[in-house]
Amino acid sequence: MVAVLKGAKNRFLALLLGFLSLLFFIFALRYFLAVGLHEYVDNRIQQWSLSAVPSQKQINLQNQYLQLAETFAWQDSYQRLITGAKLYQWQALLQQNSPQISPDSVAASLQQAKVRYQQAATLMPETFAAWYELSIVKANLQEFDAQFALALQAVDALKGVNSALYWQKVSGVLPYWQALSFSQKTQLLKDIAWLLQTQFVQQSQLLALIKNSAAQPVFCQYVKSTELSQNQRIMQTLQCPIK
């Protein structure tokens, strides 16, 4: 009797071990499939550029791969959300360049990107990229609301003293100068001044961007209240009045 019970126990343990091993294999397989598919899509997106805009067929194919990765994954991933949002942004850009596509279709693609950036920012609120991209997509949609303000506040809090992040914010937000609130404009002026005072390596690009923007006269006035007014090159490049 004891031998029978012992044998049954051993068989049960063997079955349990086999079941757990199978579960582990399934979890591992799904994980690696999700990661591999996502990395494949992300690498493809990184190869796209304004001089090599993808076709709708390419975008659809990568979107199918990403959806397959999401099917294998057990939960939302910050990186997959960001990648999905980028796909919709590329789709919106492609639609903008097509006269057959209505503005509503472009807006619908941007809305899809916005939703994913919102989810990514909620999932990892300490990351700069999600908040920055959310603010830019909302600006593209002309949604200068409380959520846009919150996204910009997060961008300002997370950019630290990183000049590359300052430049990313300034170059992305400055084109929407006229739609910004007074406090948002003030912060943007401070960001620009900070970049110029730190001898930013892309200073020429920054000055050209300011000169050709609606912020130029306001920034010239702002410069006069800072030590930047002593920098003749900045004043001349921006064509600021001397007096």
Note the main sheet.
none
Strand-and-helix sequence, N→C? HHHHHHHHHHH
Query: How many separate domains make up the residues?
Result: 2
- Top-tier CATH class of the largest domain: Mainly Alpha
CATH arch. level architecture of the largest domain? Alpha Horseshoe
> What percentage of the residues does DSSP assign to strands (E)?
under 5%
Sum up the overall morphology in one term.
elongated
The overall average pLDDT, rounded, is: 86
Estimated structural class: mainly alpha
What name is given to the CATH topology of the largest domain? Serine Threonine Protein Phosphatase 5, Tetratricopeptide repeat
Oligomer: single chain
Number of DSSP strand runs: 0
CA gyration radius, whole angstroms = 26 Å
Low-confidence stretches: none
Amino-to-carboxy terminus distance:
106 Å
Q: How much helix is in the residues?
A: over 70%
Please count the helical segments.
11
Transmembrane segments: 12-33
Keywords: Membrane, Transmembrane, Transmembrane helix
